[in-house]
Write a structure and sequence with these properties.
This protein has 434 residues and is mostly helical. It contains 18 helices and 6 strands. The strands form 2 sheets. The chain has a 3-stranded antiparallel beta sheet with strand order 1-2-3. Strands 4-5-6 form a 3-stranded antiparallel beta sheet. The chain is globular and about 75 Å long. The structure holds s-citryldethia Coenzyme A. The site of s-citryldethia Coenzyme A has 22 residues, from loops.
């Protein structure tokens, strides 16, 4: 980050005070006006409830250009990584800022593999949940409970313990997610295996049963790995900002990531992938699409086109473009290319992208629009879609959390407010109130 020799001039209308605020420049993207001293110098706050124009931090992990539909992890384009990399390699990249050489990759891959088991007591903890519990309810609780088991990786001021907690969280989240699924269908948990890759292991833990050998389909494993890459990080989205704010109080990493899982669960955020499938099933047939397009534009109707629109992308979400292609490939490989939901999704996208309401508001399909169709074709239940998002995003949350903890200027996040409540008034004892 550099301080350009430019400043922003601000005149406070109420007092006539004139201020010059420094302008900060990153390596790419918009400059930022540094308002850190504004309240101290002028006694006023900035006001930006949805953070439409606010940079909460500086970060070198992910770059998004919403107008051009660009997404890069540590400078590498998402489509190139999705095509040529693996999720474990992308984990190394996000955490360390560079691609690993062969030795570094093998060491990192071995470390992650050796941390996939969870403490046996956690299996007993799952039995305390009702079988019908939403897997996200189990995952957020189980993830926070990791801080009850792994006391040797809670000291956030010890770099070695920060690394150990990072490896544990990335490695154990697939195990916890698959355990939540198995628990919900009354099947025994399947333990991770060290002879399988990250994504093969996840599919094995999801679909293997003790009664027979389960062969992982390489097409599905590759598609799963690619989907994890696409969901790994996304700058300062709601759940990542939640993790950063929780971490700024120096809470332990397991509970900070659990806070991120909670935020991701919302249908406006990571819960949208589950909502997209529910929406496509509600539409039911391409002939009903016009009615739903109309409802999405009706301010009196809470219905929104799920999987459409984005705070940052005012162009096609580059992840959705990759997923659309993967979707067709996976359905073709599974002999489901005529899946009615895919047909409705493609027709819905075509109509919406030519409808003035969506065009004017620059509403395009986002990462959640096609992912659910792939999951459904793979036999994954809708309740597991957001847990899969959380599984992949854990590395992004961890990388962002570590970047913040390693920043010597790091301090607790404590936003202010515009107070619109009552003016001072005297207390009246109950006996005197009418
Ligand atoms: C993710 O931030 C991230 O990076 C998130 C994410 C990540 O990787 O972490 O990319 C993952 O969360 C993707 C988004 C998943 N959510 C959905 O698909 C839910 C449906 N989308 C909308 O809820 C909405 O688009 C948001 C929440 C995604 C963005 O909301 P904003 O930026 O606050 O935009 P807005 O609500 O102010 O909408 C602007 C206008 C409004 O109309 P007007 O008031 O101008 O008339 O667009 C309309 C909105 O009503 N609008 C939609 C719409 N999304 C916005 N209208 C119909 N359907 C939609 N989906």
């Amino acid at each position: 980050m550099s301080k350009k020799n430019k400043t922003a001039k601000l005149t406070i209308g109420t007092t006539g005070q004139e201020l010059e605020l420094p302008i900060l420049s990153g390596t790419q993207g918009p400059d930022a006006i540094d308002v850190t001293s504004l309240y101290k110098e002028a006694g006023v706050f900035t006001y930006d409830p949805g953070f439409m124009s606010t940079a909460s931090c500086d970060s070198g992990i992910t770059y998004i250009d919403g107008d051009k539909g660009i997404l890069r992890y540590r400078g590498y384009d998402i489509a190139e990584l999705a095509k040529g990399s693996t999720f474990v390699e992308v984990c190394y990249l996000l955490l360390n800022g560079k691609l690993p050489n062969k030795k570094e990759f093998n060491e990192f891959n071995r470390t992650i593999t050796e941390h996939t088991l969870v403490h046996e007591q956690i299996h007993f903890m799952y039995r305390g949940f009702p079988r019908r519990a939403h897997p996200m309810a189990i995952l957020s609780g189980a993830f926070a409970s990791l801080s009850a088991f792994y006391h040797d990786s809670l000291d956030i001021n010890d770099p070695a313990q920060r690394d150990l907690s990072a490896f544990r969280m990335i490695a154990k989240v697939p195990t916890l997610a698959a355990m939540a699924y198995k628990y919900s269908i009354g099947q025994p948990a399947v333990y991770p295996r060290n002879d399988l890759s990250f994504s093969e292991n996840f599919l094995h833990m999801m679909f293997a049963v003790p009664a027979e050998e389960y062969k992982v389909d390489p097409v599905l494993a590759k598609a799963m790995d690619q989907i994890f890459i696409l969901h790994a990080d996304h700058e300062q989205n709601a759940s990542t900002s939640t993790v950063r704010l929780a971490g700024s109080s120096q809470a332990n990493p397991f509970t900070c990531i659990s806070a991120g899982i909670a935020s991701l669960w919302g249908p406006a955020h990571g819960g949208a992938n589950e909502a997209v499938i529910n929406m496509l099933e509600e539409i039911g047939d391409v002939k009903n699409i016009p009615e739903f397009i109309k409802r999405a534009q009706d301010k009196n109707d809470p219905f929104r086109l799920m999987g459409f629109g984005h705070r940052v992308y005012k162009n096609y979400d580059p992840r959705a473009a990759v997923l659309k292609d993967t979707c067709s490939k996976v359905l073709k490989a599974l002999g489901q290319i005529n899946d009615p939901l895919l047909k409705i999704a493609k027709e819905l996208e075509k109509i919406a992208l030519n409808d003035d309401y969506f065009v004017k508001r620059k509403l395009y399909p986002n990462v959640d629009f096609y992912s659910g169709i792939i999951y459904k074709a793979m036999g994954i239940p809708t309740s597991m879609y957001t847990p899969l998002f959380a599984l992949a995003r854990t590395v992004g949350w961890v990388a962002q959390w570590r970047e913040m903890m390693e920043d010597p200027a790091q301090r607790i996040g404590r936003p202010r407010q515009l107070y619109v409540g009552e003016k001072p008034r005297k207390y009246t004892p109950l006996s005197k109130r009418k």
